[in-house]
Design brief:
GO cellular component, one term: membrane
Shape: globular
Number of strands: 0
Radius of gyration: 27 Å
Keywords: Membrane, Transmembrane, Transmembrane helix
Main location: membrane
Protein name: Sporulation integral membrane protein YtvI
Strand content: under 5%
Organism: Candidatus Lachnoclostridium stercoripullorum
Distance between the termini: 21 Å
Structural class: mainly alpha
Order of helices and strands: HHHHHHHHHHHH
Length: about 350
């Protein structure tokens, strides 16, 4: 009887723990999904202040300079570097995309259309008895393809235009981000002390440990993705150079940037590109691009879980699950947030701070 009572108590404790952590996970999901975009300028400002805080403390300690002056100087330098990089790369990328979008119809008539006509002539010559049916089918395909090219060109141009038109809203968020980052940086220690005072003394240590672990894991994940992006860029550059594709370095960089995004990936660029080359009759280039895509995909899928898992201390399967679930539920933020949360939970469980099934 006593044994049954103990088993019942253990089962009840397990169920309570599962419900408790499910509720916490639900709250975190709601916060990340709804409130993070709403308060993004203030969160970015606070994160930037926390990143600069160790550097500011070190400079103040070594040079005996007033903290407010060091904080303002560090922020100015930081924003100068960020805005310079965004202005340089952003303007070049947008102008390149818009220029290529405008040229899409010309590419169609100069390169794709002659290839399609050559393929149509071969098909019609091999099937003379069904020439009329095949001709109508090919004409329908040609019309749809031409319409699709025109629509794609218009969509890309309108997207770039919408980004430009949406710049005022982005500028407002940017202003709030800059202002909040200055306030947070100047009064970082006061803000952190105020937040910690909202917790019990025994909980404050756990909060500090969680935040510290989150910083370390996030930094490691960012380094991993920078490494993966570099590897992808080198693979693309080598492949484009071997295939004798013009502007190999800029093209490799653009595709590597697309590859780091969760929804797109290199397949968004390389698969249509390779198929288009096959249609145009350039078999060697088309096959080469598709083979390059397969190599990059295999290397990326093999390295990503292992490298991130080794850096954050998670099993590759758990890491892959966190990345996939985060991308599906939240998007880009989830790719970073879910492995970070899983690592923190694992560390706290290993330290005995929390228990799931006991």
């Amino acid at each position: 009887m006593k044994m049954n009572f103990n088993k019942t108590g253990m089962r009840r404790a397990v169920i309570i723990n599962i419900v408790y952590f499910a509720m916490i996970a639900g709250i975190i999901y709601i916060l990340l999904r709804n409130f993070v975009p709403m308060f993004a300028p203030f969160l970015i400002g606070f994160v930037l202040a926390s990143v600069l805080a160790p550097l500011i403390r070190r400079i103040c300690a070594e040079w005996k300079v007033k903290r407010s002056l060091v904080a303002i100087a560090c922020l100015i330098v930081c924003y100068f570097v960020i805005f310079s990089a965004i202005g340089f790369f952003g303007s070049h990328v947008l102008s390149f995309i818009q220029d290529q979008a405008v040229r899409l119809p010309r590419y169609y008539y100069e390169f794709l259309y002659p290839g399609l006509m050559a393929i149509s002539d071969k098909i019609l010559a091999s099937s003379a008895e069904s020439s009329q049916t095949i001709a109508r089918l090919l004409e329908s395909i040609e019309t749809r393809l031409q319409s699709g090219i025109m629509d794609l060109s218009g969509v890309i141009v309108s997207m770039v235009a919408s980004w430009i038109m949406g710049f005022p809203g982005f500028l407002i968020q940017l202003i709030f981000t800059v202002i909040s980052s200055f306030f947070f940086t100047l009064d970082y220690e006061t803000v952190v002390a105020f937040i910690l005072r909202q917790f019990q003394p025994e909980t404050q240590a756990m909060v500090v440990e969680v935040v510290s672990s989150a910083k370390i894991v996030t930094w490691k994940i960012l380094r991993v993705y920078a490494l993966l992006m570099t590897i992808t860029f080198l693979e693309l550059y080598a492949g484009f150079t071997i295939l004798r594709i013009p502007m190999a370095a800029p093209m490799a960089f653009l595709v590597a940037v697309v590859d780091i995004l969760p929804v797109l990936g290199t397949g968004t660029v390389l698969i249509p590109w390779g198929l288009l080359m096959l249609i145009l009759g350039d078999t060697s280039l088309g096959v080469g691009i598709l083979v390059l895509y397969l190599i990059i995909t295999v290397v990326r899928q093999s390295l990503e879980p292992k490298i991130i898992g080794s850096q954050v201390g998670l099993h590759p399967i758990i890491t892959l699950l966190c990345i996939f679930a985060g991308a599906q539920l939240i998007g880009v933020v989830g790719i970073f947030a879910f492995p970070v949360m899983a690592t923190i939970i694992k560390k706290m469980n290993d330290d005995g701070t929390i228990h799931f099934f006991r």
